[in-house]
Amino acid sequence: QVQLVESGGGLVQAGGSLRLSCAASGLPLSVGSVMGWFRQAPGKEREFVAAINWGGNRDYADSVKGRFIISRDNIKNTVSLQIDSLKPEDTAVYYCTAKYSSITRRDDYKYWGQGTQVTVSS
Predict the structure, then answer these.
(1) CA 64 to CA 39: how far, in whole Å?
(2) What is the pLDDT of residues 85-97, one digit of tens each?
(3) CB 38 within 8 Å of CB 57
(4) CA 90/CA 80 separation, integer angstroms
């Protein structure tokens, strides 16, 4: 089993930046794994944000391209999400996730963290 723990959320003004981190423990994530982030805003469904595979290939939701950067440390078993130019509509609970399948699929993530709250004030 893989456990994921997020950190780095908080309250920030619009235009500001945050860096979210996620540490994986239990079974180490290895070649073939994909780590990513989803978010869920109040009253909305959880949506895909970004993902990165073992080789460093990345996938982003159109709504965050150019503002969010996902990175990964395969040795430390961590994934991070740098969020710049924050907007009020980025307010959500951000979830770290992981799986072993193609990065192109966004609907089959197996492991989930508990989430970290990001609130952007206008």
Answers:
(1) 11
(2) 999 999 999 999 9
(3) no
(4) 16
**Tokens encoding 91:** 């307010």
d(CA 18, CA 11): 9
Q: Quick one: DSSP state of residue 100?
A: S
3-state helix vs strand vs coil in the chain, percent to 5: 5, 50, 45
CA distances from 105 to 17, 50, 52, 59, 100 (A): 28, 12, 12, 10, 11
5-55 pLDDT, tens per residue? 999 999 999 999 999 999 999 888 889 999 999 999 999 999 999 999 999
Cα separation, 118 vs 100, whole angstroms: 27
Q: What does 2-33 look like in DSSP terms, one character per residue?
A: EEEEEE--EEEETT--EEEEEEEEESPP-TT-
Q: Cα–Cα–Cα angle for 83, 84, 85, nearest 5°?
A: 135
Interval 61-113: pLDDT, tens: 999 999 999 999 999 999 999 999 999 999 999 999 999 999 999 999 999 99
